[in-house]
Amino acid sequence: MRALVVLGAVAFLVPGVWSFGWPRSFHETVARFDPFNLHLFHDLGAFQIGIGVALVAALAWRDAVAVALAGATAGAAVHAVSHVMDRDLGGRASDPYLLSLLALLLAAGLVLRLRHHPSRGATPGRARERSRTVPQDRAV
Question: Which stretches are transmembrane (predicted)?
Fold first, then answer.
């Protein structure tokens, strides 16, 4: 199962970073549809990076809320950067600010989750498996 999760993480992170960092190359090599839309490829990369980060987090943590927040925080942060970089391409003037606020709120939620539920969120998966302890409280 770990190998499958690693494969999934790589399958999302590699094209995500490629699409975000080198959108023209990604377009010419992988996604050959016209017209080329720079912001579309930045956003595509942002959300693929978010999914990849969630898969990586799932390898380390057993807390579904922490894993979801890690992926959402990464995706939202890169999405905010995309809107800052592409602010001259359209959209609302408020987009970079609102998306940055969302990313910060998600990051704060992740930090709070890991601080208040360290045994559920921050415990490495292998240590949890070795100890064979199961959390009594499954409430989110």
Answer: 43-61, 66-85, 97-114
Any residues with CB less than 8 A from the CB of 29 and at least 6 apart, and which? none
Q: What is the pLDDT of residue 118?
A: 61
Is 36 within 8 Å of 24 (Cβ atoms)? Answer: yes
Matching residue, tokens 């894993």: 67
In a domain, 65, yes or no: yes
Quote the tokens at residue 81.
């950067």
CA distances (Å), origin 21, targets 49, 69, 103: 11, 23, 19
pLDDT of the residue at 17: 97
Domain count, the chain: 1
DSSP state of 30: T
Specify if 83 maps to a domain: yes
Residue type, 31: A
Please give the residue range of the domain that contains residue 84: 2-131
